[in-house]
Hints:
This protein has 31 helices and 12 strands. With 691 residues, it is an alpha/beta fold. A 6-stranded mixed beta sheet has the order 1-3-6-7-2-8, sandwiched between helices. Strands 4-5 form a two-stranded antiparallel ribbon. Strands 9-10 form a two-stranded antiparallel ribbon.
Amino acid sequence: MSAPEETSAPEGVSAPAPSRGRRLDIPQGGPLDGAGQPGGARTAREARAHLHIVCCGPARPYDDPAPYPLPEGPVPREELARLRRLHRAVPGHAAMRDQLRRTHLLALCGEPGTGRAWTGLALLAELAELTGGGVSRLGYAGPDGASGVEKTERGHGYLLELPADQADVTAEPLLERLRAHFAEHEAFCVVLVAGGPAADRLLRGRRHAVAYRSPAAADVLDRHLTELLADRPAGLLETARATARRPELAEALGLDEPRPGEAARLAGHLAAHAEGRLSDERLLEHCRSFAPHQAREWFLEAGHPGTLPAALPALRAAALRIALAVFDGSAHSLVAEAAELLAWELAVTLDPQYAPGRPLFSARPGACLATARAVHGEGVEDLGDASVPVRAVWFEGRRLAPAVLHESWDAHHNLRGPMARWLRALCDDPRPQVWVRAAVAAGVLCARDYLYGLVELALPLGRTDSPVQRMAAATALAEASRAPEVRPAVNGLLHDWARGDDERERETAALAHGYGLAAGSVAASLEELGRLARADDGRTTSHSVVRLLAGAEPETVLAALTHWLRDTRRARRDLALLATLRAVTTRTSHLWGLGEVPELEPYAAWPLATALLAAHPGCGPRLAELLRAALTWARSAGAAEDALVGWIRRAVGDERQLAVLCDFLPRLAQDGDEPLDAGAATRIREVLEAL
């Protein structure tokens, strides 16, 4: 079926002169030839959910110390009495006490802040009460022993905490020597071992070590509240308990369950609030500081790693936490691989002459995740047309991811270089589950320090030959422009790129404007895309226009498209026609942006045009005008017919889609009182008859 020359046009659209120029084809895929589209919508949504949380600034000095620090030496009797009142027995408490009495040494393996020290002191106090001894705390004196151990007294109990970076090969021999020593002196010792390789080795050996399980945070909180408000009017305790149950307080904490140490701190804030010494706003501010406090503690632990290879366990723990901050909720395989890549960058930064390898048989995944306050479970990864089950991992608290990312970037300057190299490498991965997460994280970091992020992240990504990295650069710049103070700088950069001679920079600018953020509004982004159409074959700019059409302001985009149809410049007319064809042929979920569009969510698997007609019926007249133009003009008629055939055929198997099209097609055939020209009407009828 031949198409006429462009001698007629829809009502109100100027008809161009007959032209022998190339015909327009249906755009196939996006700028990445399909890479980065299937599954990108879910990934972008999850990245925003995990990183778009405002974190409290640095905690005040009175928020930082542990609630009840215990110095080396004898534990005062009043402290032990207080412990008896407040301590909550953990699962297996009696069995641990019996094992300690029998073997004279017990290693409690768990994370700091989980109540290990209190449980250890409680166990020792119970045995000391039977033997008439006391309880003391020892200091760590290196792999060979503990300070103060030479003064061991018969029947006494001793608490020793090993440093978090204790090497796994030295922990077991140390515990054997201590066990023999305390058995000889008929005394008892509880050793606290942080999660990691050393703890995992001890637990696998099942000698003197138990996996510590912390008490329920609610029980710890209630015990501390009762203690703090014991001498106050009875109503204050109920007030504090009611406040603890408020949803806004849980939201401010952003932790799935506070650890016992955090529960004790929270009890102090709640008691002060109940007594009127703390306002609602200040209480929530204190709660928002808990996740940053945890992140700060983690990086302080890794702040003195020593030299390689002894430093590798601490570097791997830090890398895992940062990787989780970027990939929170992703498949465990993605998180683990990203963490290993970052650990390598950290290692060669610490010692450029040392090339670290990877442990082939490492600790159990659950043990490694515990050091990052993370858990694993069943998850799903979206592949576009299908979803696959995965073993996913996530932080035990929605505020931990942004807290870790911000702390690592803001407080540790020398981490920035390896992190930037790591993110740039991830942004070259064709899987959207990887590059989208990395790009969003890069944008968040650029917003926090634009001068550094521009040079180390945006410019290297935007000027490469890799289309995935250019798409990642556009995503990162759009993400960074959410910050009002950064947006003018991003917009200025894109303005220069759009008018420059570098084709890669122009394409990156066009991709960035597809998110509708950098220019300050969707209308301003459309204006920039219209200008860029002159130096573009329409493939990139039309993709960005349709991405905007799938956003929050479809009416604004449709108005721009119909305006471009009337433009005397062929580049803009072609852009309008190509965008129309894309709207008919592209699945909605492939046009994900950086904003929420809940009204399109039920139609994510439909072509965008169908989804718009279902979610925004008022878009029908403009869509009809655009598609009539594509069917009428010679340059686009053949592609429009093919697109229409595919559009209707996809709807045939879905009654909901078919119902939407049945309502729309009469509008396409006639515009008010003005019928479609005979040639276009014949083509539509032939398309329908061909089904």
